[in-house]
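Backbone shape codes:
***
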Amino acid sequence: MEGRDAYLPFFNILPLESMSNSNVELQLKTLPSSPGVYQYFDKNGKILYVGKAKNLKKRVTSYFTKNNDSHRIRVMVKKIHEIRHIVVSSETDALLLENNLIKKHQPRFNVMLKDDKTYPWICIKNERFPRVFPTRKLVKDGSEYYGPYTSFKTVNTLLELIKGLYQLRTCNYDLSEEKIRNGKYKVCLEYHLGNCLGPCEAYESEAEYLKKIEAIRQIVKGNFKDSLQQFRKQMKEHAENMEFEEAQKIKTKIEVLENYQAKSTVVNPKINNVDVFSIVSDEGYGYVNFLQLSHGAIIRSHTIEMKKKLNESDRELLELGITEIRQRFNSHTREIYVPFKVDVGEQIKVTVPKLGDKKQIVELSTRNAKYFRQERFKQMKIVDPDRHVNRIMAQMKQDLRLTEEPRHIECFDNSNIQGSNPVAACVVFRNGKPSKKDYRKFNIKTVEGPNDFASMEEVVFRRYRRLLDEGESLPQLIIVDGGKGQLSSAVKALDVLGIRGKVAIIGIAKRLEEIFYPGDSIPLYLDKKSETLKIIQHLRNEAHRFGITFHRNKRSSTALNTELENIAGIGEKTVVELLKNFRSLKRVKEASEESLAGVIGNARARIIYEHYHPQK
């Protein structure tokens, strides 16, 4: 407890419950569109309902956007004070987790799944000459259990497949070596029918029998490629013999097996009575997720938010979070799974899984922590936009290794086609959002031909010379759309102006989203999902859009003006009048002589009309 007390003054731990404040509408806006399980709670924190969803956002929102015919559902919706959810990998996992949570909590508004029945498993019994059979109960006697399965149809198909391929005993005799040697048992009808090879009378050796059991293990694990090939062979033989009903039966079995999922993350008998913890963090907060597993199944998920005060490490945050959560939920498990080593005392075994089922359950916990962080960001953006902006600015400062927060960012992009009509664009973001009134566009004046480097140097120089002349504030960050070449050209302009070092400048290359710094040949790679990279990409895309639009308009205007001005006797003012009234070159071409004369007079109207209608 000494370690915990030492850290407590530096953290603000915010449980999931504190963020709801009955604001169901806010929670609905931030739900993920992933498979998972949702839970409804009333104002006293009592669970009302547990449900599963292929898409959490759509399913949960449907309760609040449609008129429910059921009186039970209408009453429940009125009582909902808080929505919690657990994200899983698949719809099947959501179905299994829903079953676990309903059995555990017995919610008032759940009608189905409240009995003591569970989904079926396939058991390979821990005995000499093991039996293989379906069961709903897991007995801790060393037997192997595979599943659970959401459909008994899948279980029966697998067992029929196994029965068709391998002769196994179905009796529950104790086939010890001594009893078989003493002739205690006699073969039964199953032996005479060919369904069993008679291990009870030593007609089959234990070694041969165990080879079949190993093959069956591969089938129930989902490795049944050879078995499927044999099924397809049987189906083909039935079809050739005109036995279409039998062929259809085997085809149905093949389809069921091909859709079969052998593994489940949320229910796994190999993982029993452990606590799973993970953490994701940003510049100001850490998010610790907790999954509680009992008897191989997830029975609880919870995430807390922890505010940093002294730039604590993920390990320090996770150690505090583990202590806090275990005390809150009165957990006494002796083993925890975590993504990296932590010190939580000698009485708790700390496991850092490297692969397999244990690794998957830690990854599931991490995924839930990430979703929680995303939802907090979305909620903060709605409820407290200033705090959201402050966090993003602090995160950008840290990610880009800046000396101050980039509240004012400017991004440059060039646009030309083989050197024709070269232009450039500068877009401005303030507090992470576009400030369109500050956008600027440039006609390239000093560069001839397609030279992006020289064009970049010109527009950067012109932009900041003007800001300096007018006494305007400089940005905290300049972004150049391009790699090392464009970045070097922009830096030259800053050198000439004497402001290099006063303003941070970076370049972003499109192909791999590499971030380049002046004088550093090794690029920086940001997390593809990070807020910092998203804002930089937004800046780059906005500069490209703004520049392309300007370039396209200029090119179109040039093309129009050139065609009309090439007509002898027609000048620039006449062209402007025509386009102002007819809006396009096409309409000018199609206009009658009278219409043209009404705008530019008879003499010039006749010149233009005869130019486009020489035969008439």
